[in-house]
Amino acid sequence: MSEAPRRPLHGMRVIELAHIMAGPVCGLMLADMGADVIKVEKIGGGDDSRRMLPPDVNGESAAFMMVNRNKRGIALDLKQEGGKQVLRRLIHEADCLIENFRHDTMQRLELGYEALKTINPGLIYCEISGFGRTGPYTERGGFDLIAQGMSGLMSITGEGPGRPPVKVGAPITDITAGILAAMGCAAAYASKLQTGRGQRVDTSLFEAGIVQTYWQSAIGFATGEAPGPLGSAHPLNAPYQSFRTRDGWINIGAANQTNWLRLLDVLQADELDDDARFADNAGRMANLGALEAALNDHFTQRTTADWCERFAQAGLPAGPVMTIPEMQRDPHALAREMIVESEHPVAGRVKGLGAPVKFHEAAPFTTRPAPVFAQHTREVLGELGYGEGEIDELIRARCVASSPPGATPGR
After folding, report:
1. Which CATH class is domain 13-212+332-401?
2. Is 174 a catalytic residue?
3. How do residues 253-290 score in pLDDT, each as one tens digit?
4. Which fold has domain 240-323?
């Protein structure tokens, strides 16, 4: 009899000592791929994203629920020895720990990598920070805004030269750092399965911003010049940007000669085909302002939907600029299961974003709602061998906290 399909990381146990964004995104990615992720929150409020209100759903933070699904939640006081003992017992059974505290926080608690690997030599210890654990900026705190500025991202984002710096709308370095960390954890886990040894995994928001600059860094290395903001345009190809239509905006990907000719055919812009300034990509980049003006005259003649249909028939990459609610209703996003629902014990039926990687030979993707504060403390401690009396004593000593489903103390 063949074994029932499982998610790729089934059997991996992860302890998430992380808050807000980058660390929880790492845990989310691993949980969606099948890992058993146990989120450890502080007593006296838990993850700070629980207080990012509004928006909320029946009092539960929408931000917290978005990035903490498919995890179990417990609460420990790591300043007390009883809380530390629980964590050490968790570590003994774990494959991976994720933390995104300031550089010396875990060491001061005597819970750094060197201490914990004596308990579990196979432990993968993942550190996500503002600037990494080596280098002159190690001790600096880091936020997405700071990382976007120092990585160069804000110098290439915005409407154009002379305008104020603009950050990417999404917390892109937080999210990317979480994804990079998950990739590092999965790679270290694959190594551990072969060698039995764990290791430290170290990434940062700073590096997560830098890796977004591949094209612009290529220009900088090749020319010694600093690329600047181009609005929605591309630094190497044209036309590859947004254009206003009769009723909105459309993105056009005519980034090679074949698609340029397709664009001209659909637009019926014979005069541009005969214009020597736009004969090749180098000319179009050199005369980008004139190209934009010429194309704008055509795009404003029809609606976005009309153009999208015509470009689809011609095989030209194009798409509307959608709002977030429009994206959430889009039939392709729904077909790709990027909008999922779960039944939360307090918030009720809530929607979230689905897993961005599909495994077609794995078990079907399932969604467990984000835990209410300390929801699974008794369950997890029971799995570690604690008796009910021992758990009650830890609760009385405030070394741990526990909440039944439907309750949210400590928020």
Report:
1. alpha beta
2. yes
3. 998 999 999 999 999 999 999 999 999 999 999 999 99
4. formyl-coa transferase, domain 3 (3.30.1540)
